[in-house]
Amino acid sequence: MVPFGRGTCRTGPRAKSITCLKARSTGSWRYASQAAMDARGCSGRQSAAASTISGLSLQEAQQILNISKLLPKEIQKNYEHLFKVNDKSVGGSFYLQSKVVRAKERLDEELQIQAQQESKQESGRKPDT
């Protein structure tokens, strides 16, 4: 077997009869991901890198913390609530609590990327004289 992305493909006489679905889906995912990055510009590359490092996509982090827009107050409020209810001492799950922490870290990283992008845009503008 030869590794390909996250899946594996077989080689040899039966290679033509065996379909490698994971390889195909990985390829289509790459095209969709590239199109999304192109639409977002430079910040898309930083966001994709943050997703790779944290292991969570921005959408997944938003779903975990149940938010639709990146508002720091809403993120913090939902984080505190979910962190408390998933505490092991009250019968919660350490696994879920750690997912909540990782989601908050990912969203904080995204807010930082957006702030950097906005400061670059403002520094590139000419002051009114």
From TrEMBL:
Keyword Zinc: no
Membrane topology category: Peripheral membrane protein
Protein name: Presequence translocase associated motor 16
GO cellular component: matrix side of mitochondrial inner membrane; PAM complex, Tim23 associated import motor
Pfam families for the chain: Pam16
GO biological process terms held by the UniProt record: ossification; protein import into mitochondrial matrix
Domain of life: Eukaryota
Family indicated by similarity: Belongs to the TIM16/PAM16 family.
Subcellular location: Mitochondrion inner membrane
Gene name for this UniProt entry: PAM16
Tagged with keyword Nucleotidyltransferase: no
Keywords for the protein's UniProt record, in alphabetical order: Membrane, Mitochondrion, Mitochondrion inner membrane, Protein transport, Translocation, Transport
Signal sequence segment: none
